[in-house]
Amino acid sequence: MPLTFDDLLRRAASLARPGRRTLLGIAGGPGAGKTTLAERLTRVLNGDGAPWAAHVPMDGFHLADAELDRLGRRDRKGAPDTFDAAGYAALLERLRRDGDDVVYAPGFERTLEQPVAGAIPVPPSARLVVTEGNYLLLEEGVWPRVRSRLDEVWFCDLDEGERVRRLVARHEEFGKGHDEAVAWVLGSDRRNAELVASTRSRADLVVPAAAMPAVEAGTWT
What's the rounded Cα separation, in Å, for the pair 2 and 84? Predict the structure, then answer.
């Protein structure tokens, strides 16, 4: 039987264990549907009750543009070395340790294209944390620290043409002209996507496009 979104819901819910917090990672290339899937999972799992699932994206660990300029990496924004991977791994470890305090994670402001500190509260009631990002399965640098803190990692497997179409539309919505958006997607973004695709075989589950929720207007993956 083909995998469905309901199957994903059941699998995510089954990861939660009494007495400890569980971390589920969702990996995939830029525009593959990671954010949409993570947001829909947590929203449906929480329903109308107390939040027991939380969404913590990796995007909050983008280095600020000022630091990318200092390092000479601004033209490669989105590459593995333009994130604070060690800081991300440290946050995941803190989330795993659980506790009675709210844990604040950074978010990412798409309009500004900048990280925002303390934007996402993870309450003590959260038993499942869903985190998503490009490089959860990367085996270079400090990225293996990230994988070691995740109980399971899924990989969003979207058709390449659709992934590119979504990315171009995203860049256009947030200020790039069409030609500039296409150039970025077929340059920097494509190199990153190829690197992410090489990690697919390390995932615990490959999620086909048919099992992913539809992308709504005004939302980005």
Answer: 37
Superfamily of segment(s) 5-209: P-loop containing nucleotide triphosphate hydrolases (3.40.50.300)
What pTM was estimated for this model as a whole? 0.88
Whole-number Å distance between alpha carbons of 89 and 2: 33
**Where along the chain do its domains lie?**
5-209
Output 42-50 pairs: Cβ under 8 A, ≥24 positions apart: 42/130, 44/9, 45/9, 45/12, 45/13, 45/128, 50/125
Please name the residues in contact with 75: beta carbons below 8 A apart, sequence gap of 6 or more: 188
Q: Say yes or no to pLDDT of 98 above 60.
A: yes
Is 183 a residue whose pLDDT tops 80?
A: no
